[in-house]
């Protein structure tokens, strides 16, 4: 003979059920923050890349213009025209870093040219261009002037190579 089952004193328990898996959308706030950070980095990288490409394009364009001037001088032999064109090219590039460069003469122009780290002989050759515009063509060393201008331009077209001017030191 069997005995009747004894009722249990506590509540009737059921099997354990796991909660549903978290949905993939919408993402947690940390993922949104990461997405915003990555987007900001992407935009900053894109801005830097475009700026770098523009600077490289400008550098190539200026150096091509210098080569064109040298070739033109080889064809026509006009020394004063070459000196004038080289001088204008120097002023145009210097004006990008110092707006007063277009009007500077003498020591002020020398200081602007010297803001780019070049040797003294190159600096003297560049300063001589200002005088060569008005001198007879026989006293003009064309090859040395083109070489000096090219050396200066290669450094000047990299903004990091410019030293601060004396007025920038005074403002700081």
TrEMBL record:
Positions of transmembrane segments: 30-49
Sorted alphabetically, which Pfam families does this protein's record hold?
DUF4381
Task: Name the keywords, alphabetized.
Answer: Membrane, Transmembrane, Transmembrane helix
| UniProt-listed InterPro entries | DUF4381
Name used for this protein in its record: Heme exporter protein D
